Amino acid sequence: MCFILFLLHLGLQLSLSLTCPSSCVCLPNGDVACTGAITEIPQLKANQTFRLNLNNTHITILNPKSFQPLAHLQRLKISHSPLATIHPQAFLGATQLRSVVLLSTSISDLPSTVFSSLENLEQLHMNRNQLISLHPDVFKQLVNLIELDISKNKIATLDSRTFQNVTGLIT
Asked: Where found (predicted)?
C-alpha cells in the first residue's frame, strides 16, 4: 500500500515538473510564480494555471494573444520587470481574467484597445509604472471594473471621458 502511495506521489511530482518551466514554481492549486531570465510568457499547462505571477523577469513586451493559451487564467501579476510594450491584442482570449496587476514596470503608454477583451476584469492595478497619459477609451470595455489603481505614474492630466463607462468603481 505504501509503495502504491509513493508511486502516486512520484507521478504527481513528475507530472508537475514536466509541465512547469525551470524558472517557475507551479503549485497544484493553479498558482504559478516565475522569476529570472525569462523573456516571454512561459508555456504553461492551460487547464492548471489560474494565477500567474511574473516577478523580476526580463519580459519587455507582451505580444498578441500572449495569454490566449491560458484559458482559465483569472489573476495576472507582472512586477519589477522591464515591460515597456503591450500589444493591443495581448490579452485577446484571456476572457477569464478578473485581476491584472502591472507594478513597477517601464510601461509609459497603453494602446486604447488593450483591455477591450477583458469584460470580466474587476481589479486593475497599474501603479508605480511610467505611464504618461491614458487614452480616453482605454477603460471603455471594463464595465465590471470595481478597483483601479493608477497611482505613482507620470500622468499629469486625464480626459474627462476616461472613466465614462467605468461606473462601478469603489471609492
From this structure: Cell membrane
CATH architecture type of domain 2-149: Alpha-Beta Horseshoe (3.80)
Confidence band, pLDDT 50/70/90 cuts, at residue 63 = very high
Domain coordinates in residue numbering, the chain: 2-149
- The pLDDT tens digits for 88-117 are 999 999 999 999 999 999 999 999 999 999
Strand-by-strand arrangement of the 75-79 sheet: 24-26, 31-35, 51-55, 75-79, 99-103, 123-125, 147-149
Please compute, for residue 55, the number of CA atoms within 13 A of its CA located in the half-sphere on the CB side: 7
Q: Is residue 118's pLDDT more than 60? A: yes
Phi, psi of 101 (to 5 degrees): -120, 120
pLDDT score recorded for residue 171: 65
How far is it, in rounded angstroms, from Cα 48 to Cα 73?
Answer: 9
